[in-house]
Amino acid sequence: MATKVVMEALSPTMEEGRVVEWKKNEGDPIATGDVLAEVETDKAVMELVARAGGTLLKRVVPEGTTVPVSQLVAVIGDKGEDISALVGGGAGNGGPAAQTTKPVADTTAQRTSMPPAPPAAAATESTAPAPRPAPPPGVSPAPSRPGASPTAAAAPGDGDRVKASPLARKIAAERGLDLHGVAGSGPAGRIIQRDLEGVAARPAPGPAARAPQVPAVQPVPAGEPFRDVPLTQIRKTIARRLSQSIGPIPTFYLTTEIDMERVAEARDALNARGEGRISFNDITIKATALALRQHPACNAWWQDDHIRYWAEVHISMAVAIEDGLITPVIRHADQKSLRQISAEAKDLAGRARERRLKPEEYTGGTFSISNLGMLDIDEFTAVINPPEAGILAVGRLAEKAVVEDGTVAVRRRMRITMSCDHRVIDGATGAEFLKTLKAMLENPLALVW
User: Fold this and answer.
1) Between vectors from CA 13 to CA 94 and to CA 387, what angle results, nearest 5°?
2) Which CATH class is domain 152-202?
3) Helices 427-442 & 280-294, crossing angle to 10 degrees?
4) Which of 6, 65, 110, 360 could cross-link to 61 by cystine, CB 3.0-4.6 Å?
5) Which residues are catalytic?
6) pLDDT in tens, 28-41
7) With contact defined as beta carbons under 8 Å apart, do 322 and 354 qualify?
8) What is the CATH number of domain 233-447?
9) Is the pLDDT of residue 286 over 90?
10) How far apart are CA 348 and CA 315, in angstroms?
11) pLDDT digit string (tens) for 254-276?
12) Is the distance from CB of 334 to CB of 448 less than 8 angstroms?
């Protein structure tokens, strides 16, 4: 019996996916769990996994093709089986024949079981060594490939060449991993993305190396007036989300300047202990979470016919990646220590740049923070991430001459700007929140009091 493989919704916001690379050719034998292709979603590159065995009878769409969710991309069945009724309507159109053929079963070709990720999902701390949040109840871990040995050695090719998918090679290069020591669970011992989970990477970079990744744009070829570059899935999502935000949301902005001298001294003292490095961004996340707990009117969502006020504080942390922006979420940030926030922020940011975040790790935030201080930006305004009602734009820490008790002194200062959805947050409400946040940062003992 032939089995249709369709483009699966691998994230809550995914509407279409792009086939980056086929891992199987037509006529290849397929076992349940085999990686068929790598697919670029709106947030990450994920593996398209077979949910039925047989022979890959047809690759309906070529590499580089973008197709909507639920559209036919391949057919698996018995060798020699007639599938003309399935693919006769044209490549990837999921035509009438594909919709009415009774003996054909639709299967989910995905890597992760993915129900909608509600923001209120539990965010218990993980007991695993890596400081990542545990998935919400009802979300299954990534399924393992039946019959695959977890200790299968990576099969080398010619000489010292290791069999690995292009995505695995990219991740290994970025993290400084030696693929020769990694066991592959893909076909014929091929190393795939999931085999790199938990593999020790190079030491985490210091604060100076944690600046946002600026998207690289290739120069226009000599003699050409311009160069057209197709939109990636994440760039399409960013464009759609910003259109939903900047147009219909009545936004106003509040800016204040904070004396960071005491925070800087406290941070230096903490880092001198040699138990991990705390960044100013980590401290800002912690202070913001505690301030939101005192001002729940700012920890809210606009829901068209009602406002949802959250008792839980989940901070969305803007991270620049190669071709866009993503906001991993630090859940229950108000209940976590600076050390926990620092470790989790490093882990989430690193995996965000590798396009390895799970959907539940970048959805469900209740308030956002965007920090461009590492890029020497004094002050800016950030676009609200709906349905959230506010976002904090953090500028750089700079030494300034200020008047103190009638004398001029040099102090480290930082400017922050809050973008507010006026349908949820009034001017005085936002100002009171910033007043509390400023007091916490200027008196860091308030963070532990």
Assistant:
1) 150
2) few secondary structures
3) 130
4) 65
5) 422
6) 999 988 889 988 88
7) no
8) 3.30.559.10
9) yes
10) 12
11) 999 999 999 999 999 999 988 78
12) no
CATH class of the domain at 3-108: mainly beta
Q: Residue 410: count other Cβ atoms within 10 Å of its Cβ.
A: 11
pLDDT at 153 over 50: no
Q: Is the pTM of this model over 0.70?
A: no
Residue pointed to by tokens 């950030």: 382
Distance CA 186, CA 34 (A): 7
| Tokens 């790790």 found at | 361
Q: Fold identical between 152-202 and 233-447? A: no
Averaged confidence pLDDT in the chain: 78
Query: Within 10 Å of residue 323's Cβ, how many Cβ atoms?
Result: 18
| Domain residue extents for the chain | 3-108, 152-202, 233-447
Here the tokens at position 240 are 């759609």
